[in-house]
Structures are given as C-alpha cells and as structure tokens.
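Researcher: Please translate sequence to structure tokens.
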Amino acid sequence: MMRDLREVSLVEILLVEDSPGDVRLTIEAMKEAKVSNRLNVVGDGVEALEYLRRQGKYANAARPDVVLLDLNLPRKDGRKVLAEMKEDADLKVIPVVVLTTSHAEEDVLKAYEHHANCYITKPVDFQQFLYVVQSIEDFWLSVVRLPPKP
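Model: Translation complete:
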C-alpha cells in the first residue's frame, strides 16, 4: 500500500550536506516555504550511510521519506552514497534528490545512471533557492506517492 505524504503530519527528510552555510540556507528556505518536516542533517557520506542503515549512533534514526544529497562530500562522496543506496534492497526505494552545485554534464549523467530520482543544481540566490525548496516540497512531499516504510 502506498502512502500519500499529505496525510502524514511530518515528512522525514535527510539532508546530506557538508557546508554549514548550505545547511542554514536549506533550513531557512524550508521555514520560509513552510515545509512541514523533520529535517535531519549529516555532514558526510559515511555518516549518511550509517544513518540510512541505522548503525551506531543512528540506531534509532527515523527512516527518511526523501534524501537531499550533495555530491561533493568528505569521507565518501555523494556519487558513491547514491550508488550504494540504489544497490541496497532496503534503501533503493527511498527517493534521492541530488542537490548540488555541480553543473557538470558528467555528474548529471552519472547521477541518473545510479538511479537518482532527480538532479537539481543549487542556485546561489536565496529567492531562487527558496523556489527550488518549494518545488521540492510541492512535488516530492505533496504530489508524489511514496512506498510505505518497512
């Protein structure tokens, strides 16, 4: 049975981002866009996979409804995180929105080859970033039906 996130009070979002400035910008844009969510943030690819697999300090972490993934991360790059997620039977159904500064065609192609659900280049202007976050909310958190959590 699929679930409609509009019927859920809080959407679980995992933001995988190493830039404190981009984390703050995302938080502010979500507040401004009035996205009803619980935003969890990890700062590198190793932590992202530990969170998703509920390992170590993330043993009680909530399973995210959607992952916002930067590509350029320390310890384990976002491309590898995406590939590992989509190869894992328990994680591959979680939608991944690549949200990165990279405009490189190779990054776009590789993200889709590894089954990213969409690829968005981060705008630098706050109003444009707000528009992007609102668009993510409108589509991924209001329109799309996601599979149930296990």
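Researcher: Any highlights?
Model: The domain at 3-146 is CATH 3.40.50.2300 (Rossmann fold).
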